[in-house]
# Entry
Amino acid sequence: MNTQDAYNRWAESYDTIINKTRDLEQAAAKNSLVNTDFSKVIEIGCGTGKNTVWIAEKASALLAVDFSEEMMNIARQKINSTHVRFRQADITKAWNLDKATLITCSLVVEHIDNIDFIFEQVSTTLENGGCFYLCELHPYKQLQASRARFEYEGQLIQLEYFVHHISDFFAAARKNDLQCLQLREWFDDNDRNTVPRLVSFLFQK
# Structure
């Protein structure tokens, strides 16, 4: 099952199942973006709107983008704001989006092989001084066989994923003139004696 079809099927149960990765990423995003310019925001991988709802409260204009139409349909039900727009798109193709002061991307690029292209599109789309927040499953966690998965009609569906090391993110950022302002690792129950679940970055153009 390809990634788009998998997320379309996952949409119905995504908000209701126990998902430590989903919940920790929301906390990471809120914590990392406290002092960021929210005037023109693009949210890549909005999913069912777990971050869209609170970003919409801060943003002057928000474009929420996702590959899965079914995920976005759920997000749309949570939002009743004229300054929020939704767009179904494949971010592995040229974006052609309006300029933004902030781009967020949560739990998306683990499903994408070529992250250099993503960083190139981010750099093209960001205004000078704009920021790019990125949060992903930590590569250490991936190497322990952790990955996006869910049950559907009695079957375990495991999504395709690619391991991107922290050095890969830095190389892609450097190639596209993005400076890292913040690198953080996020642990289950804040237990730093375990392997971190997530890694987040805040880059600036």
